[in-house]
Design a protein that fits this description.
Radius of gyration of chain A: 26 Å
CATH topology of the largest domain in chain B: Rossmann fold
Radius of gyration of chain B: 30 Å
Structural class of chain B: alpha/beta
Largest interface: A-B, 56 and 49 residues
Largest sheet of chain A: 6 strands, antiparallel
Number of helices of chain B: 14
CATH class of the largest domain in chain B: Alpha Beta
CATH topology of the largest domain in chain A: FAD/NAD(P)-binding domain
CATH superfamily of the largest domain in chain B: P-loop containing nucleotide triphosphate hydrolases
Number of domains of chain B: 3
CATH class of the largest domain in chain A: Alpha Beta
Strand order of the largest sheet of chain B: 3-4-5-2-1-6
Strand order of the largest sheet of chain A: 15-16-17-18-14-19
CATH architecture of the largest domain in chain A: 3-Layer(bba) Sandwich
Shape of chain B: flat
CATH architecture of the largest domain in chain B: 3-Layer(aba) Sandwich
Oligomer: heterodimer
């Protein structure tokens, strides 16, 4: 390609979920962006499962939406089934999830990128970064072309040193059928960056026509679907069912007999795999007392012949995969479009980053996505977005956007990445968020709108829409302060098995009773809500959120107290050159980790993985003396 | 302060005595000893006779010196223990000499703090050290010795493990399984919770006795004027601490005497007698009596006539005592009232036994482990309350897993406050180490 004459503010390397969020937000905030990808036709590709959201991830997509990302909008437009998970388990862990049409999703995301005039797409392979005086100044492409910019965001995904395993077969690649990238790992390692290997797996893609659909169990989405994006005005997505099957004893036996043929077990794969999304051979090996595992048959797009077999990620030889699957009712004659495989790839230890995702050593250089050792589209997109925002902050010489653990899952994600040792691909879970009662999917707007405005992440119309929705929510919450007359509610209370009331009682007090839901209250309470100009799906959601606000009031208060306590620890600063090695009471692991990671506060120090309670108390005593 | 400077302090009380002990701890302790002893060689954990001089070669004292090389020492650092003659001037000379060699005077509790920082003891054990020093009886000290040996830490750690296991199960339901909580899983959660509740309740119950052992109890003697309260106090303490006379209203201010009963320090308070009076000093005395009753663990209600009523205005444990038995001769048999004569010392043994029983001192066994500080008790109380709330959440008709988890987490936080913090990662690691991952 020709040398580039454009003057860039930001160079984004990689056009996956992290890369496109980084590029789009930078461009929308006025930056001139070079988006460098190995393959111009693969922008925003969904390389693994055909779904967005899920436990804890759904909450993050909402946050991405308020902070100006596109993942939520693209999902709403390409979703074929929407469902809230964990519905029976408490409102703060409700998590929206959508099956999507992968092709449509990719097309929508690509169109966002193509329509953004500030983004310049560049096809090529980055082999090195250009550095002047500990500051980034651009990248070097294969073929010796240099591109200059004051900031570079690396979002290389699984493409660095990618090595695919199917049984004993090995293929150098980024994704199945796409070539990998070789150069940049070595270049960065030679500049002192710490790299490691991780592995992840993907299940086989089945031929729809080889499945006996009479023997599988359908699983449909919610009747009233919930969108991801606050910007979605009309929302009538299809509700296409997925299906489930169960593995049985014969399947288990076949896999157990062939374990040694899996490169994960024969030791051929060097990287560490995720416990959270384990391969089927891992599950069989580790939980040998379980005879059954549920597998999901998910269409990859509307009318797709290709079925994604969720829950059966594997690196066994193709013949063994087939043999094992054919023991399952409904899959007796199953055929593959493509077998499951494992992929190993390079990542860079995110403890080398600040909470802005900028390198601690090279200013202007950002890392986001799988290159930081995470797994999942949502985790990648969230980081890409934050890196993109902070690249522009850096260019403008302004303070970065840092989200704290009590205001967003994204805050938890980044804080975990920079303080924890990455031993396996990092996936978000609700239990990682100690303040999750505050982090509901249904209050993402209330939590983050202010920051979004402060950093100008959304346009005026978009902000207006979110404010309208928030206003509607406030109206509902205010309405709950009104008294309810016994005649309006006693019949309902009696039906619910609750004590009836003798005098007028505030609606909120009634709602605090465990078996009373907001839909049980008299409709007349909410006459004001009808006047607001909000899409019906958000009115519906606001009722749910208002109920959570009232029912959880006491818990929310207690959690906020915990946050205050945490902030106090967060304020105990550790001197930059603190000598951990001289503290005999610290375990040698703690000494090594503290010295390497250099936590800035006692709060960060205590979250470093492998740090024991004893280490923290010793350190805290040392800091106060 | 640089972390490992060398500190020095006398470890025996200041004053004249047979022997005084001076402790030096820190990286320079050995060097300093070498300077003071003129290069004499000491082997670790051997008692050596040595003539020590200051930097100007002035002789200080001939003493016994023991060197403990770290980490096998109390603080985990190099420690030198000097046993000198018990003279404040000698002790001062040693402390000054050590400071001239680069040491500094230790702050209160600093040796123990270093033991903690160096991983020799945990927080609970550190508390026990202070308690042993301040314990007023051998029973109390024995009980703290057990804690220092790690008995309470062990109980708390096992409770912590048990509650984190429960939490792991709950989190598994929230994070991995996309299906509803099964009835059998709900039962398991409920029964695991029940076990923890029982353990915590038991532990919480031990504080009554632990508190008795370590802080003692207060018994307040009340009654009308001139029934012999002051005489009883004097009789119990075997002294004439309180002024006695046959003039009603002699005692105006409260008088306190501490006695050791069954290893427990019991503070007896003699109070101004109840009567309506115009004397403002006596009035204030009676007000004080009520305040003492408020704070007391036990009330000893005294009368001198079987026909008079006993004090009934408090629901605190009360022993009714009838005084001046010697004047009446024969006992009117009423099992609930103890008949004594403070003047002649009749029935005092029976009264003491009853006090021991009423306060629960007879239930104390030094073989048991008790919660012994207010900090520990408050944390366990918080833990217990959170578990109870969790128990209210898991009912046959409803089960909010999220709130259940919140309460379990709060209970764990409370225990962590005694032992240290459990990071969310510990919980996660546990989830995936022990359970099957669904999808």
């Amino acid at each position: 390609m020709k040398p580039c004459s454009t003057k860039f503010d930001v160079l984004v390397v990689g056009a996956g979920h992290a890369g496109i969020e980084a590029a789009l937000i930078s461009a929308r905030r006025g930056g001139v962006v070079g988006l460098i990808t190995l393959d111009l036709s693969a922008v925003g590709r969904m390389s693994c499962n055909p779904a967005i959201g899920g436990l804890a991830k759904g909450q993050m997509v909402r946050e991405i939406d308020v902070l100006g990302g596109v993942m939520g909008l693209a999902t709403d437009r390409s979703g074929i089934q929407f469902k809230i998970l964990n519905r029976s388990k408490g409102k703060s862990v409700w998590s929206p999830r959508a099956q999507v049409d992968k092709r449509l999703y990719e097309k929508i995301v690509a169109s966002f990128v193509h329509n953004e005039k500030n983004i310049h797409l560049i096809e090529g392979e980055v082999v090195d970064v250009l550095i002047e005086n500990c500051a980034i100044s651009g990248v070097l492409l294969r073929g010796k072309h240099k591109i200059h910019a004051p900031t570079v965001i690396l979002t290389c995904g699984t493409f660095l040193g990618g090595l695919i395993h199917v049984g004993q077969k090995k293929i150098r690649a980024g994704r199945m059928g796409e070539s990998g990238a070789e150069g940049i790992t070595e270049a960065l390692v030679s500049r002192g960056f710490l790299a490691g290997r991780l592995k992840t797996g993907t299940p086989p893609r089945l031929d729809k026509n080889s499945i006996d659909w009479t023997k599988v169990t359908p699983a449909v989405g919610d009747e009233i679907p919930t969108p991801f994006s606050y910007q979605t005005k009309t929302f009538n997505p299809p509700n296409i069912p997925c299906h489930t099957v169960k593995t049985g004893v014969s399947c288990k036996n076949i896999i157990a007999e062939n374990l040694t043929k899996s490169p994960m077990f024969s030791g051929d794969v060097g990287g560490v795999g995720p416990r959270y999304c384990p391969s089927i051979e891992d599950k069989i090996h580790r939980f040998s007392h379980h005879d059954e595992h549920v597998l999901f048959l998910e269409p990859e797009w509307v009318n797709s012949d290709q079925i994604y077999l969720n829950g059966f990620s594997t690196s066994l030889p193709e013949a063994v995969q087939l043999m094992a699957l054919r023991t399952i009712p409904g899959l007796e004659n199953v055929r593959f479009f493509r077998p499951g495989y494992a992929i190993e790839y390079d990542f860079f230890s995110p403890s080398q980053l600040k909470s802005s995702l900028e390198s601690k050593d090279i200013t202007g250089l950002f890392f986001a996505g799988q290159i930081n050792g995470t797994s999942g589209y949502e985790e990648a997109a969230a980081q890409g977005l934050v890196a993109g925002i902070n690249a522009i902050q850096y260019v403008n010489n302004e303070a970065p956007l840092v989200l704290s653990r009590d205001e967003a899952y994204i805050g938890v994600l980044i804080d975990d990445l920079i303080t924890k040792n990455t031993l396996e691909p990092y996936r978000m879970f609700t239990s990682r968020a100690e303040y999750r009662i505050l982090l509901r999917f249904s209050n993402a707007h209330a939590r983050l709108l202010q920051k979004s405005e402060k950093f100008s992440l959304l346009g005026a119309t978009a902000i207006r829409r979110i404010k309208d929705i928030l206003f509607g929510l406030d109206t509902i919450v205010d309405s709950l302060g009104a008294p309810v007359d016994p005649s309006e509610i006693n019949t309902v209370l009696a039906q619910l098995g609750e004590a009836t009331i003798k005098q007028k009682t505030p609606a909120a007090a009634l709602l605090r009773r465990p078996s009373v839901g907001i839909h049980n209250l008299p409709k007349s309470l909410f006459s004001m809500v009808a006047d607001t100009n909000i899409p019906p799906h958000f009115v519906y959601e606001s009722y749910i959120e208002a109920e959570a606000i009232v029912k959880y009031e006491g818990y929310i208060k207690r959690q906020k107290k915990q946050v205050l306590r945490m902030k106090r620890q967060e304020n105990v600063l550790i001197p930059p050159r603190f000598n951990y090695r001289s503290i005999a009471g610290l375990s040698s692991e703690a000494k090594e980790k503290f010295s390497r990671i250099k936590p800035q506060t006692l709060g960060q120090a205590q979250r470093i993985s492998g740090i024991t309670p004893a280490d923290v108390s010793v350190l805290s005593v040392m800091l106060v003396v | 302060m640089t972390p490992w400077d060398t500190i020095v302090a006398p470890t025996t009380p200041y004053g004249h005595s047979g022997v005084a002990n001076i402790r030096i701890s820190g990286s320079d302790a050995l060097n300093i000893l070498s300077k003071l002893s003129g290069g004499q060689v000491f082997s670790s954990r051997c008692v050596t006779l040595s003539s020590l001089k200051d930097l100007d070669e002035n002789f200080i004292d001939r003493c016994l010196v023991t060197l403990f090389r770290g980490p096998e020492s109390y603080t985990g650092e190099d420690v030198v223990e000097i046993s000198s003659h018990g003279n404040p001037a000698i002790v001062d000379a040693f402390v000054n000499a050590v400071c001239e060699c680069g040491g500094r005077i230790a702050e209160p509790g600093e040796f123990t703090r270093r033991a903690f920082i160096n991983g020799k003891i945990d927080l609970v054990q550190a508390e026990a050290v202070a308690a042993i020093i301040h314990s007023k009886s051998i029973e109390s000290s024995r009980s703290q010795q057990k804690i220092l040996g790690g008995s309470l830490s062990k109980i708390l750690t096992s409770l912590q493990t048990s509650i984190s296991n429960l939490l792991s199960r709950v989190e598994h339901q929230l994070d991995v399984s996309e299906e509803d909580v099964s009835i059998s899983e709900k039962k398991t959660l409920s029964s695991l919770l029940g076990e923890d509740i029982t353990t915590v309740k038991q532990l919480k119950g031990t504080y009554a006795l632990g508190r008795l052992l370590n802080y003692g109890a207060t018994a307040v003697i009340v009654g009308e004027t001139n029934v012999g309260k002051s005489t009883l106090l004097n009789c119990l303490s075997g002294s004439d601490r309180a002024i006695v006379s046959n003039i009603p209203g002699t005692t105006r201010d409260s008088i306190e005497v501490e006695l050791l009963l069954g290893g427990v320090p019991v503070l007896f308070i003699d109070t101004a007698g109840f009567r309506t009076t115009q004397d403002i000093i006596e009035k204030e005395g009676v007000n004080r009596t009520y305040r003492h009753i408020e704070a007391a663990d036990l009330i000893i209600s005294l009368t001198d006539n079987p026909g008079k009523k006993h004090f009934k205005k408090s629901d605190k444990p009360t022993i009714n005592v009838l005084n001046k038995q010697d004047l009446r001769g024969k006992k009117t048999n009423n099992g609930r009232v103890i008949h004594i004569s403070s003047k002649k010392g009749i029935g005092i043994g029976v009264l003491k036994n009853r006090i021991i029983k009423e306060l629960g001192i007879n239930n104390i066994s030094t073989e048991m482990t008790y919660l012994s500080t207010g900090r520990q008790y408050r944390a366990i109380k918080e833990c217990s309350a959170a578990l109870d709330r969790a128990n209210d959440i898991i009912t046959p008709s409803s089960f909010d897993v999220e709130l259940f988890s919140f309460e379990i987490r709060s209970s764990l936080d409370a225990i962590d406050a005694i032992l240290g913090k459990t990071s969310p990662d510990d919980i996660l690691n546990h989830v995936f180490a022990t359970m099957c991952v669904g999808k």
